Write a sequence for this structure.
């Protein structure tokens, strides 16, 4: 009886681990998503980011890019999350929002913030599990569901057997 209870408790502890570890192992490296690059430049007024508001997904990269500008600009996040450096007429600065960085990021061009040269980047959480480049999202999702589901019935079946054994032991 005591052994059965110990086994049952051990299974309860192991069951959640199984579910959590599998999707992480399946995740592709972030570098595979480098093609998802959003470019922010400066518009013809010389005092506005273009576009000034973008929405990206975790794992994606934002590129601040301008050249031959009439005025020097930079892009500095309100809390210093990213900073393109000193204002310049030519800037090519990339920043990647890693997993867990979902949120809203306000940034300014320091010399022209008071003139309204400000922007916002909204970072949405990555889908779980992240899609791969090789297969489309739908087939990848169903693949992972198929892989995750069998573990649960097995754990439940073993639990049922152990509970039955425990009940029988108590009767004896
Ligand atoms: Cu500026």
């Amino acid at each position: 009886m005591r052994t059965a209870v110990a086994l049952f408790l051990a299974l309860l502890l192991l069951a959640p681990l199984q579910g959590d570890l599998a999707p992480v192992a399946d995740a592709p490296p972030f570098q595979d998503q480098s093609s998802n690059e959003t470019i922010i430049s400066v518009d013809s007024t010389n005092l506005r980011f273009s576009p000034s508001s973008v929405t990206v997904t975790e794992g994606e990269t934002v590129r601040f890019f301008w050249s031959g500008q009439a005025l020097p600009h930079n892009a500095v996040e309100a809390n210093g999350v990213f900073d393109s450096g000193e204002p310049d007429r030519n800037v090519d600065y990339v920043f990647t929002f890693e997993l867990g960085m979902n949120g809203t990021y306000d940034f300014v061009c320091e010399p022209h913030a008071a003139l309204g040269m400000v922007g916002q980047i909204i970072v949405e959480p990555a889908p779980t599990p992240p899609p791969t480049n090789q297969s489309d999202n739908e087939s990848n999702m169903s693949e992972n569901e198929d892989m995750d589901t069998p573990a649960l019935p097995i754990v439940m079946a073993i639990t049922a057997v152990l509970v039955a054994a425990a009940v029988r032991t108590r009767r004896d």
